[in-house]
Amino acid sequence: MMKGLRRRGATLLGIVGCVALPALVSAEPVRLVDTGPSGPVATGLVDWNTQWLAGEFSTSNAWRITRVEGWMVPSGVEQFGGPVRINLLSDSDHLPSDPLFSTITSIPGVGPTGWYGQSGLNWTIQPGTFWLSFEALSHTSSGPAFSGTTFAMSGTTARPLANRASAQLLSECNFRERSCWPWALDNSIDLGVRIFAEPTSPVPEPSTLLLLLGGLPFIRRGRRLLARSH
């Protein structure tokens, strides 16, 4: 009987250790992508009515993306600062395709070169190939627009992305329509990109953890009975 109790106690402790403890430790974000900065001077234009840029990355695991950033160089003109849309896009034959997730940040017209992006994201992805695009927007969300965001990105990074692409606005086309921005492979550019993510391993429900932890008193009682038997 006591041998059986010891076996059950050891099994329960193993379950608690393998299931409960990892759930009680918060996951630390890792850098899923980190090209490093592209330097203080950049030549790749990102403009609200001229050109967008994007970079490709792949992963063999599932992740929850929490932050995305691009190494950006402000234009140096105050009125050219403004909103920037960062999209996570699916891949189609090594070209950016449909948007999966989107967020909007901003960049100053006059300011330091550095990492600009958005945190607090909850973008869950499965293994595969994706693109992160940087799309400058106009200063108005609807109707005619006469000004918008302009900045630069392309430079030289320590760990370049596998592929890069640019989208140029078609002439006589509505800049607010994504179909007016066809993507083309352009590995002459190099983008500074950082993507922070957490593993998407399942976390036990609180009721499950309570049930497992509730068995600990029985283990302690079994140990006391075992000690008395000796």
Q: Which descriptors would you attach to this protein?
A:
alpha+beta; seven-stranded antiparallel β-sheet; six-stranded antiparallel β-sheet; 20% helix; 37% strand
Summarize the structure.
Strands 1, 2, 4, 7, 8, 10 and 13 form a 7-stranded antiparallel beta sheet that branches. Strands 6-5-9-3-11-12 form a 6-stranded antiparallel beta sheet, with no helix packed on it.
Give the number of domains.
Answer: 1
- The structural class is alpha+beta
Terminal CA distance reads 14 Å
Radius of gyration: 25 Å
Helix content bin = 10-25%
> How many DSSP E strands?
13
Largest sheet: 7 strands, antiparallel
| Share in β-strands | 35-45%
Mean pLDDT: 84
The CATH architecture would be Sandwich
With helices defined by DSSP (H or I, 4 residues minimum), what is the helix count?
3
* Order of helix and strand elements from N to C terminus: HEEEEEEEEEEEEEHH
- CATH topology label: Jelly Rolls
Show unreliable segments.
9-13, 15-26
The coarse silhouette is: globular
**CATH first level:** Mainly Beta
Note the topology:
Elements: H1 2-24, E1 30-34, E2 45-47, E3 51-59, E4 63-74, E5 82-91, E6 96-107, E7 114-118, E8 123-125, E9 128-136, E10 150-152, E11 164-168, E12 183-185, E13 193-199, H2 206-214, H3 216-229
Antiparallel strand pairs: 1-13, 2-10, 3-9, 3-11, 4-7, 4-8, 4-10, 4-13, 5-6, 5-9, 11-12
Helix pairs in contact: 1-3
Folded structure, characterized:
- The protein is of the alpha+beta class and 230 residues long.
- It has one domain: Jelly Rolls (Sandwich).
- The protein has 3 helices and 13 strands.
- The strands form 2 sheets. Strands 1, 2, 4, 7, 8, 10 and 13 form a 7-stranded antiparallel sheet that branches. Strands 6-5-9-3-11-12 form a 6-stranded antiparallel sheet, with no helix packed on it.
- Strand 5 and strand 6 form a beta hairpin.
- Helix 1 runs antiparallel to helix 3.
- The longest helix has 23 residues.
- The two termini are 14 Å apart.
